[in-house]
Write a structure and sequence with these properties.
By secondary structure, this protein is an alpha/beta fold. 31% of the residues lie in helices and 24% in strands. Helix 1 links the parallel strand 6 and strand 7. Helix 4 packs across helix 7 (208-225) and helix 7 (208-225) packs parallel to helix 8. 57% of the residues are buried. It binds zinc ion (ZN) (2 copies). One zinc ion (ZN) binds next to loops.
Length: 425
Amino acid sequence: MVLLIQNGLLIDPANNVEDRMDLLVEGGKVAKTGKRLRTPRAARVIDATGWVVAPGFIDLHVHFREPGREDAETIESGAQAAAAGGFTSVVCMPDTQPVNDNEAITRFILERAAQVSPVNVFPAGALTSRSEGETLSEMGMMREAGIVAVTDDGRPVPNAQVMRRAMEYARRFDLVVMDHCEDPQLSADGAMHEGYYSTLLGLRGISPVAEEVHIVRDLLLAELTGARLHLAHLSTRGALEMLRQGKKRGVAVTAEVTPHHFTLTDAAVVGYNTNTKMKPPLRSQEDVRALIAAMKDGTVDAIATDHAPHNIIDKNVEYDRAAFGIVGLETCVSLALDRLYHRERVPLRRLVELLSTRPARIIGVDRGHLSPGAMADITLLDPERSVRVDVERFKSRGRNSPFHGWELRGAPVMTMVKGRVVWQA
Ligand SMILES: [Zn+2]
Ligand SMILES: [Zn+2]
């Protein structure tokens, strides 16, 4: 299969390219890029005039609920949501039932993905057995089976000594440790950010300090052990300061920010819509400003969705009893284009870095670039296309999005994996 993508704005930060160019795909790989490439016979031609052609987007943080909670999401439905959101690869968190803490589960996920997924599914394994924070998981065996990271996302390791050993162990297998930063005693039964709105709404708050205390501990442990640390869903201004200091000291630390944390503030909780409830919680305006600035200046490495589908019965209850988390795969790219590119003037090139180039490096996969010979995982965007978010049209089984009905400017238009078009607007 030969495919020629013509006239797009090619943005490939890894090769320092941002130019109007054609891209030729042959045998599932990038054959070449250049100005006015000759159209080979029998080639399918895609006219990308007005579109951005980027290395395939990689979401470092999704929750597919298989095995165990297929009513909320399956590998198939989640992967289709990813393709429809412009993502060619996802990293799925290990908090399934059972937890992905051993090679049998890892193999199950990969085999299932090979059968049903249009996108690359890279599993993350648990840090500790059953993510209970006590004994270490079988990282080596899982690494051989195909995990790309380790994490106890959702259940942060409370014991610093266990975390130290886990980091040492992860380092032996060159696995990045993805860290859900939350001190569970400090966050206690909190349902939202602690501040004016939590008082107004009579909901128990979660202080930014619950996140920051944990970051300080793990930055120190990463420095001590030499482990690679990736801070998941970073949400506070203070946390960004710590990230900056850590990077300055030479700690091997990276961080991701979610679209909901750079778009919404805790004011969105007014009205008690349970689709504004997640961990960490929506923060203050000041935090949002700081997150956007840190994405602009490159302090933050990645945009990741923390796509967390829930069954309606887990969300359709009183606010403080509702499950934490929202879906994000099918709104992420439009939110990034609308909010960051159009409104905040974050350059497209930076967005491609945040959504592809750097995520690929963080998990150490040969993706995130369009060099000749690279796997032809490609995301095409129309920065001007207006879309209206409609949860009823999601490929995901989850409907729990706070963005239903939003009009957004900019959207993915085509997703290509290994040279095959897997989704088209
Ligand atoms: Zn988390
Ligand atoms: Zn998560």
